Amino acid sequence: MKITQAQFIISAVQPHQYPEDALPEIALAGRSNVGKSSLINKLILRKNLARTSSQPGKTQQLNYYRVNEMIYLVDFPGYGYAKVSKTQREQFGEMIEKYIRDREPLKLQLLVIDIRHEPSAQDKLMYKWLKHYEIPTCIVATKADKIPRSKWDKHIKMIKKSLEADPRDSVVLFSSETGLGREQLWDIITEAIAT
Ligand code: GDP
């Protein structure tokens, strides 16, 4: 994918702030620190557009990035941040569930998992919601450079098993360090917005 334009649009805290131009949306979910910002930066080939590790306590905003006047990447707040209160956690859940349930332009959800670790309870819950609302989902196993290539298969199997993943969902090995998986992920995104 040739990136001609990439721009931060808004941190939306309320649905009325979501863009209204009906461009397809690709959303990203994952625990805090999993590498979502790095993944966005790698996808759009910008060093710092999505700020890495930005304000992990902000549980209630969706960050919108517009790419090539063609799609929005929608970054969910990272979950699992220890210092977040129960109320904030509940607000997070409500906001995300509502978005997934009602957001018509949502074409594909990326669930970003650290390849080294078993998916958390919140990863599993997120995946269940996605399946429940029949959202096309792609599991992205990132930080692949952190384990030897010989272990990739085993870890991917572990992640799929733990999520009870639908065999139809694609799984992409990714590394924001090396760029592994970048083209494959763009292909999956391009296909998702074409259907
Ligand atoms: P976020 O909180 O999910 O947005 O996570 P960040 O993108 O800020 O990444 C958290 C930390 O993991 C940072 O120190 C990144 O440099 C590092 N990181 C993210 N992705 C990768 C990756 O693919 N490989 C390696 N080695 N480090 C990564």
Automatic annotation (TrEMBL):
Q: Which organism is it from?
A: Paenibacillus prosopidis
- Which CDD domains does this UniProt record tie to the protein? YihA_EngB
Q: What is this protein called?
A: Probable GTP-binding protein EngB
Tell me the ranges covered by the EngB-type G domain, including all copies.
Answer: 22-195
GO cellular component terms? cytosol
Q: According to the lineage, what is the superkingdom?
A: Bacteria
The cofactors it requires, by name, are: Mg(2+)
- GO terms under biological process: division septum assembly
Q: Source taxonomy lineage?
A: Bacteria, Bacillati, Bacillota, Bacilli, Bacillales
Output the InterPro entries linked to this UniProt entry: G_ENGB_dom, GTP-bd, GTP-bd_ribosome_bio_YsxC, P-loop_NTPase, Small_GTP-bd
Pfam families, per the entry? MMR_HSR1 (PF01926)
GO MF terms listed in the record are: GTP binding; metal ion binding
| Biological role | Necessary for normal cell division and for the maintenance of normal septation.
Keywords associated with the record = Cell cycle, Cell division, GTP-binding, Magnesium, Metal-binding, Nucleotide-binding, Septation
